[in-house]
Amino acid sequence: MKEWIKKYTVYIVIAMMYYFIPLYLVKDTGSGIFLLLMVIPIIVFLISLVFAIKKGFRWYFSVIVGLLWFPNVYILNDSASSYIIIYGAISLIGQLIGNLLRKYRKSI
């Protein structure tokens, strides 16, 4: 059980962020846009950065990060489908930078 939790913790954290932040913190259109365009992308970037520093680059991580947003297309609306690609791309960028930092840290 501990091994399962250790392996999937990052995905659980991202899923909880995706589903609970919009549910509890969106009060009006302005706060919704702020969360979708600023807060969630920053959190996705930081989680991806830390993930890549610890475990190296994993291409499937960014795909999963994007696909975890998919249920929100039905929860929010169809326009939320573009965030699948956006969050996946932000995750990919975070992983690439994290992987570079990992290699740089190992070379020191």
The amount of beta strand, in percent, is under 5%
Low-pLDDT ranges: none
Radius of gyration using CA atoms only: 15 Å
Structural class: mainly alpha
Helical coverage, percent range: over 70%
Can you describe what's shown?
With 108 residues, the protein is an all-alpha fold. The chain contains five helices and no strands. The protein has helices at 2-25, 29-55, 59-67, 71-75, 82-107. Helix 1 (2-25) runs antiparallel to helix 2 (29-55). The mean pLDDT is 91.
Which helices and strands occur, and which strands form pairs?
Elements: H1 2-25, H2 29-55, H3 59-67, H4 71-75, H5 82-107
Comma- or semicolon-separated keywords:
mainly alpha, 108 residues
In short:
This protein has 108 residues and is mainly alpha-helical.
